[in-house]
C-alpha cells in the first residue's frame, strides 16, 4: 500500500520517560535538554515491578525495561496489521471508528487493557486490538524497519550524481529546501536518493539527514485527503484531455511555423499542475527542464533534458531582446519567457507549475529555439 497517510517528523527521545502502569498513565517528563539522558532510580523500578506483579499484568514490564541507550521505545509501538486497522472510540469492536492505523505506522502507547491497547498515532487517538501492535523489546529491535530516512538540501542547487564523488556524471539537480528519501546506506559521505525516476547520489556536505515515521489519520483527515486526491485526479484528467485536443490540432507544426506565443499559450494550460523532480509529465508532474522540454516536444521540437545542456540550445539573445517562448536560464533552473517580465515555469514542490518574475534571480542566459 502506498504511504498516502500522514507523515510527521519525530525526535526519538521525545517519547522517552513515560512509565506505563496498568490502569493508568504516569507522566514522567522526558529530559528537558538533549544532552540529559532519562533515567529511573532503582527504587522506582522496584516499585513499578511490584505494582505490575500485584495486578498480574506482567507484559507491561517488557515495555518499561527495554534496554536501549536513550529509552526511545519505552512507550512506542508499531503496527502489525494488513493495510490498516481501525482505531476505535472504545475498546470494543462495535464502537465507532475514529481513525485508521496503517501497516507501516508508529504509535504511542497510552494504556494496556484486556485484549486492547489505547494509542495515539498522529492526531488519531483511541483503541486498537492488542495483537495489531508490536511493542516493548520487539519494537526496539524492529524499529529500523519502520524508519524513513530523508535528506533535505541545504545548498541553493545540488547535483545528483551517478556515483559517490564529484568526478561522476551529473544526472539532475535538486534545490534548496527539497526533501528526498534516502534509498540505502550512505557511502563515504554520499547519500543514495531517488529523485523522480532517477536514482543517484548527493554529497552529505550539502544535506541534513532526518528520521521520520508514518502515522495513522483520523476519519476527518482521511475524508479530506480522499477529497483532495479526487479533485487532483479530475484536474489531471481535464488537463490531459485538453492536451490531447491541442496535440491533434497542432500535429502539423514545424519549428519554422511555431510561434513563441503558441508555445506560451500551450504551456499555460498546465499552470497549477504538480512539480516533480525528474518528472516530464505536464499533467502528473515535471521539474523545470522537464516542463520546458515537454512543452516544446508537443510542437515537434527536441530539447535537451537538463538545464546544463539547454544553455547551449538555439542561439543566444539578450534579456532586453527576449520574446515569448524564449528559454530563460538561471543557475540550475529554466523557464519560458511570457513577455512583460514574467516566465511560466515548474517552480518547486510547494507552488507547482506557475508564473513568476523573470528577474527573480540572476539570469545566466536567454536562448531562442524557434
Please tell me about this protein's structure.
With about 375 residues, the chain is an alpha+beta fold. It has three domains: about 5-145, Roll (SH3 type barrels), CATH 2.30.30.40; about 150-215, SH3 Domains (SH3 type barrels), CATH 2.30.30; about 250-370, endopeptidase fold (from Nostoc punctiforme) (Alpha-Beta Complex). Helices cover about 25% and strands about 35% of the residues. It has helices spanning about 40-55, 60-65, 135-145, 220-250, 260-265, 290-300, 305-310; strands at about 5-10, 20, 25, 75-80, 85-90, 95-100, 105-110, 115-120, 125-130, 135, 150-155, 155-160, 170-175, 180, 190-195, 200-205, 205-215, 215-220, 280, 285, 315, 325-330, 335-340, 340-350, 350-355, 365-370. Strands 21-26-22-23-24-25 form a six-stranded antiparallel beta sheet. Strands 9-8-7-4-10 form a five-stranded antiparallel beta sheet.
Provide a short characterization of the protein structure:
By secondary structure, the chain is α+β, with helices and mostly antiparallel strands.
